[in-house]
UniProtKB/TrEMBL annotation:
The keyword Iron-sulfur applies. This is Benzoyl-CoA reductase/2-hydroxyglutaryl-CoA dehydratase subunit BcrC/BadD/HgdB. Its cofactor is [4Fe-4S] cluster. Belongs to the FldB/FldC dehydratase alpha/beta subunit family.
Length: 394
């Protein structure tokens, strides 16, 4: 049995044993997709914001670049000396280096097609472009202009339609677009119900779980994802009756990506009498899509997303922080990442203007040793500020 398959099987069983059926369902689907790709089936390599609904009609397995590198690292598919030393892209983030090594060492077969966007990460786009040139893999791109103008919108729609047309010309449709639209809309409705429960019962679900499954965003339009979201919603419903917020516990917001060692989040909550109540990565997808305006709606979703501009992210996270009366912000920044870390200074300034402290923890989602050892100090400083500010004893 392959190492990733064994690891994911274990994770599924562990999730079930802990009554986290939604997580088990999510991981089962990831394992199934990887089984197909590692087994030699034609697959597409895509970057994070390429909508899965574009590819589901053709029943093409899709590997999202950061997700596969994260899985690879979690499953220890490559030893550190194998992926770190073997790579030519020394200025790249560890996710790209790891994925490149997986392809180079033929642990993962080459994709049949690459579909990449420069949003949210131009570095991931450039990396995919280089992969396509190195291995002569057909490359489709969505060059997003980060402007909220009609001209930009129309240009994005045109590119999205071209990608969709290419897929129609090269692959046979196996699922009707209407059914994909229906499934996607069903997911959006369930996601909204989950958000509503979380709004009403702050902290009812662990942030660690949310960060484990936020990449469901990449699985819109798939039946298995509807199941996973339904299970999550039902699980939350069942907890509401006996749930209440513990007085005195500080409310924190988690911004940014996921650390390799997720138990860190539990540790922070246990040691400092605080609870994370929201994550910006899980703030996705609010609008339905339609058959007649398929590509337009997918473009609108991208342009509506929280990370589309720095201002949007600052505005949206501040609005939520005020609504939930959040006490502090923890921003996790991936090493050498060109996406979220450069936004931190603006986030910190905006929150400090409304007297909410924001700290940045730095680490690496792939390389364990690159963890910022000073994180305890930073959290302790923040908790001290919170206690002094609110005149509460620590
Ligand atoms: S730079 Fe950041 S967003 Fe881009 S691929 Fe690397 S980790 Fe992902």
């Amino acid at each position: 049995m392959n190492q990733y398959h064994y690891y994911l099987d274990l994770s599924v069983r562990l999730a079930k044993a802990r009554n986290k059926n939604y997580l088990a369902e999510f991981l089962t689907e990831q394992r199934n997709v990887l089984d197909r790709c590692f087994g030699g089936e034609d697959y597409v390599l895509a970057t994070y914001y390429i909508p899965n609904e574009l590819l589901v009609p053709f029943d093409l397995p899709v590997i999202y670049s950061d997700r596969i590198a994260g899985f690879g690292a979690a499953c220890n598919l490559l030893k550190e000396e194998e992926w770190k030393k073997s790579d030519q892209y020394t200025s790249r983030c560890s996710y790209q280096i790891y994925l490149n090594s997986m392809l180079k060492k033929k642990i993962l077969p080459l994709p049949k097609l690459i579909v990449a966007s420069n949003y949210p990460c131009n570095s991931a786009y450039q990396f995919c472009k280089e992969l396509s040139e190195t291995y002569q893999i057909p490359f489709l791109d969505l060059k997003v202009k980060r402007q909220e103008s009609t001209e930009a919108y129309q240009d994005h729609v045109k590119q999205m339609e071209q990608i969709f047309q290419y897929l129609k010309d090269h692959f046979s449709v196996k699922k009707s677009i209407q059914s994909v639209v229906n499934i996607s809309n069903q997911m959006i409705l369930i996601k909204k119900e989950i958000d509503d429960i979380r709004n009403q019962y702050l902290g009812i679900i662990d942030t660690q779980d949310m960060l484990n499954i936020f990449t469901l965003y990449n699985d819109f339009g798939k039946e298995s994802s509807v199941e996973a979201l339904q299970m999550l919603r039902d699980d939350l419903h069942s907890k509401t009756e006996n749930y209440s917020w513990k007085p005195g516990v500080k409310k924190l917001m988690w911004l940014g990506t996921t650390p390799l060692c997720m138990s860190l989040i539990d540790k922070i909550e246990e040691q400092y009498a605080c609870k994370f109540v929201c994550e910006d990565l899980f703030l996705f997808c609010a609008k339905e899509i339609h058959f007649d305006t398929f590509c337009q709606d997918l473009v609108k979703r991208i342009m509506d997303s929280i990370f589309f501009t720095e201002e949007k992210r600052v505005f949206k996270t501040m609005e939520i922080a005020k609504r939930y009366q959040v006490d502090g912000i923890v921003h996790y920044s991936q090493r050498i990442c060109k996406f979220l870390p450069p936004m931190f200074p603006k986030i910190q300034k905006a929150f400090s203007d409304i007297r909410i402290p924001a700290i940045e923890l730095c680490g690496d989602g792939i390389e364990r040793a690159s963890w910022d050892k000073n994180y305890k100090e930073q959290i302790e400083t923040m908790m001290r500020i919170l206690c002094e500010d609110k005149k509460i004893e620590c």
